[in-house]
Amino acid sequence: MTVLDRMPKETGREYAMRILRLNIISLELPPGLLVSENQIAEELGLSRTPVREAMIELSKSQLVGILPQVGSRISLIDMELIQEAYFLRIILEKAIVELACDMATAQNIEALGENIKLQEFYVQNPSPIKLLELDDDFHFAIFSACKKERIYNMMKEMSLHSDRLRQLIIRTYKNTNIVSEHRQIWEAIQSKDKQKAVNRIEYHLMRYRYDYDDISLKQEHPEFFK
Fold this sequence. Notes:
Layout lengths: L11 H14 L8 E2 L1 H8 L3 H13 L3 E4 L3 E4 L4 H25 L2 H19 L3 H18 L3 H9 L2 H14 L3 H14 L3 H12 L1 H9 L1 H4 L6
Helix pairs in contact: 1-3, 2-3, 4-9, 4-10, 5-6, 5-9, 8-11, 9-10
């Protein structure tokens, strides 16, 4: 399990939540794994109580299942939850990229371009978790350009299950098409081509379905899926 330093003023519960979410999304704690709250508490240098509270909170997002008298189990990847999350994302992000064509400043455009350069670096120097972080940063930057950060954060909470699928696709098949797709979205916003931006973001967000169908992840990793 990846353990990062505790941040200043971060409570034990917040720290446990952050580290557990990181490891669940990165698949360091894989779907179906039975985890020991005592062991995690020891690794994080915490008492069991904040770890237990974090597990209960994660269970509300259906990332963890609480098993009475047994412990906690990392939830299997649920394609129904993923489809629901992407339904919301497609509606919101099509509207956002169209708005970005009007609202994005030269500084916003430059920041998106720098993000893409970093993505390209991590394609050449593979780091699946870093690519996923930069992917998130790219989408957040578009929402931020439109002054819609709170909407992004709401949407992001629904995307935790799909984040695991994205990570699995990148890890298993080294799929880097997302980077060229981000560049196309960026170029459309830069040229203020609303229709192209909407078309590109819709195709990009539908990639999970194409990849899932084409590469049969469920056959490769049946133990990970509900």
